Amino acid sequence: MSLTCAYCKEEGHTKFACEKKLKADKARAARMAKRNDDTKSETSEISTAVSSNSARRNTKPQRPQRGVLTESEEREARKIEKKLREIAALEDRLAAGSPLDVLQEKKLDRKLELESSAVMQKVRRGYLRVELAAAQ
Ligand SMILES: [Zn+2]
């Protein structure tokens, strides 16, 4: 009984040891993998487009998105900015030679702390600000 390849009909090896069959299988596997990748990336592009569309329409509070402040962060940022404006006004008075009382000096001491708060760092990094509902 001679050994004949069922794939390429050559003698001396079986189809399980056939180099031609092995090559063909590999090429087919590569083609399949590529097709799967293409399908996957198309699907994710579609789902991204859909989710950003619905985010634009939806006015309810969103999960925190990268690059956008949440409503609570926006509120905190506005509070801090108000304090920083007060501090800036105090600094102006100090620069103009007006004496500050103890409470005002304490406010000045908090400037660095306020500026380095997590939410103000986000604002400086260019996070988008959000609109807040008028009634709180
Ligand atoms: Zn063969």
Task: Give the overall shape, derived from the CA principal axes.
Answer: rod-shaped
Strand content: under 5%
Estimate the helix proportion, in percent.
55-70%
Q: Strand-and-helix sequence, N→C? A: HHHHH
User: What hetero molecules are in the model?
Assistant: zinc ion
Number of strands: 0
- Overall pLDDT confidence: 85
Treating each run of at least 4 consecutive H or I residues as one helix, how many helices?
Answer: 5
Class by helix and strand content?
mainly alpha
The separation of the N and C termini measures: 91 Å
Largest sheet: none
Oligomer: single chain
Poorly predicted residue ranges:
none
Q: What is the CA-atom radius of gyration, in angstroms?
A: 33 Å
Structure description:
This protein has 136 residues and is mainly α. Among the domains are: 23-56; 71-124. It contains 5 helices and no strands. The protein has helices spanning 19-57, 71-95, 102-109, 111-115, 118-124. The structure holds zinc ion. Residues 29-77 are annotated as: Disordered. Residues 29-43 have a biased composition (Basic and acidic residues). Residues 44-56 have a biased composition (Polar residues). This is ATP-dependent Clp protease ATP-binding subunit clpA-like. It comes from Durusdinium trenchii.
